[in-house]
Amino acid sequence: MKKIATLLAVVGLVMSAPVMAKSTKEISDQPLGERGLFSERAVIERVTLAGKVCLEGQPCAAAVVAGPAPGAEPRTGEQIVTAVCSGCHGAGVMGAPIIGNKSLWGPRIAQGKDTLHQHALHGIRSMPPKGGCATCSDEEIIGAVDFLISKAK
Questions:
Q1: How far apart are CA 150 and CA 153, in angstroms?
Q2: Per-residue pLDDT tens over the stretch 17-57
Q3: Helix (H, G, I), strand (E, B) or coil at 124
Q4: Is 99 in contact with 148 (CB distance < 8 Å)?
Q5: By CB neighbour count within 10 A (0-12 exposed, 13-18 middle, 19+ buried), where does 44 fall?
Q6: What 3-state DSSP class applies to 92?
Q7: 50: left (phi over 0), alpha (psi -120 to 50) or beta
Q8: CA atoms of 60 and 46, how far apart (whole Å)
Q9: Count of alpha carbons within 13 Å of 29, Cβ hemisphere only?
Q10: Are the C-beta atoms of 97 and 104 separated by less than 8 Å?
Q11: C-alpha R_g of the chain
């Protein structure tokens, strides 16, 4: 008796499926062969890069640089430290000297300001160039380094 009930339930489901989805277009707007996880379309969608590269001299409509407005005053060293540098230097992430820690900054300050400016502008060890701030000018980064040095003296 259980077998008959199970058979009837399965037949009922199979018969009702076309009624529930009147057409396969309701399931997906992709053609039938393009719906699978391993279809060519799905694979290309997964491996396509999210962004675009814009080269100098070539038109690129979506290229927008987020930074200070043209003609605006440059940000102060303290503003740059607060907005950018404190992410790592606030907690000593990956060996970054902590803001205001004299024992960590002492040996670095002994190398001279010019060396520290070059390290900040071009990167050193785990620190990327300009601390990862692509919109910061060289003058703003130098101001941030000078601010960090003043906090450690």
A1: 5
A2: 655 555 555 666 666 666 677 777 777 777 776 666 777 77
A3: strand
A4: yes
A5: exposed
A6: coil
A7: alpha
A8: 24
A9: 0
A10: yes
A11: 30
Residue recorded with tokens 């205001």: 100
Alpha carbon distance 67, 118 (integer Å): 22
Tokens for 81, please give them: 């430290």
Residue reference for tokens 């399931």: 27
Residue type at position 116? L
Domain locations in the chain as residue ranges: 77-152
pLDDT in tens, 70-107: 667 888 999 999 989 988 998 888 889 999 999 999 99
The Cα 84–Cα 134 span in angstroms is: 11
- Tokens representing 150 are 């003043």
Domain 77-152 has CATH 2.60.120.10: no
Tell me if the pTM is above 0.70. no
